[in-house]
Amino acid sequence: GEDVEQSLFLSVREGDSSVINCTYTDSSSTYLYWYKQEPGAGLQLLTYIFSNMDMKQDQRLTVLLNKKDKHLSLRIADTQTGDSAIYFCAERAGGYQKVTFGTGTKLQVIP
Amino acid sequence: AAGVIQSPRHLIKEKRETATLKCYPIPRHDTVYWYQQGPGQDPQFLISFYEKMQSDKGSIPDRFSAQQFSDYHSELNMSSLELGDSALYFCASSRTNSYSGTGVSTEAFFGQGTRLTVV
Fold first, then answer.
1. What does the DSSP 8-state code read for residue A35?
2. Which of B48, B58, B113 faces A96 most closely, judged by CB atoms?
3. Three-state SS letters, chain B
4. Burial (CB count <10 Å: 0-12, 13-18, 19+), residue A26
5. What whole-number distance in Å separates Cα of residue A67 and Cα of residue B108?
6. What letters, b where the CB count within 10 A reaches 16 and e where it falls short, cover A77-97?
7. Residue of chain B with shortest Cα separation from A97
8. Tens-digit pLDDT string for chain B (119 aa)
9. What residues pair up with B10 in beta bridges, in sequence order?
10. Which residues does A59 contact at the CB level (< 8 Å), separation at least 6?
């Protein structure tokens, strides 16, 4: 199967950390992505991680991967109001395989 | 750096009309993917092409067709448009490196999308 699941909504206060979680079922996933989508806008690739890694840090973003549990998380440190958006987790087996998206998590940042 | 280019950015069509969406992948990318994102939905995979051949097919209606040309750009043709076809259509591209035999490929990059409104 290729299901990717996320919680639908997350609300945090400005300055706090946000953690968005994702679970997937496809054990052949090679690439795991986090995309950000602002209202009416396109998909912005935030970061990605290979399945042979368990952590990747990029400035305020930290991605954790638990391959055994097929669980991926995105932590945003010092969350800002500009981080308010929908965050999609996605996976891809590699080669010319398609990207499969999760349901998206709407992050609301309260000033 | 060059990104995935989609045209047009916005398109308004009437029911039963035909629309053609275009996608220009990142240079040297050989694989393109089409996605449809309805209001409040996650992007749904429609179809993909690798080296000008269809490589995968998702939930693409029979009224839609697509192809990838020799210059690797792709077009999504949509006929007999329905109100429910109103959505954001994304194209993505990636490079599948088969020369080394490792099947290593780069991440998929998405274009800004074409917003189709059917009235």
1. E
2. B48
3. CCCCEEECCEEEECCCCCEEEEEECCCCCCEEEEEEECCCCCCEEEEEEECCEEEEECCCCCCEEEEECCCCCEEEEECCCCHHHCEEEEEEEECEECCCCCCEECCCEECCCEEEEEC
4. middle
5. 21
6. eebeeebbbbbbbbbbbbbbb
7. B56
8. 678 999 999 999 999 999 999 999 999 888 899 999 998 899 999 999 988 999 899 989 999 999 999 999 999 999 999 999 999 999 999 887 654 444 455 578 889 999 999 99
9. B115
10. none
Positive or negative, the CA dihedral B86, B61, B96, B99 is: negative
Provide the shortest C-alpha distance from residue A27 to chain B (in Å).
17
Q: Scan for tokens 């993505």, then name that residue.
A: B92
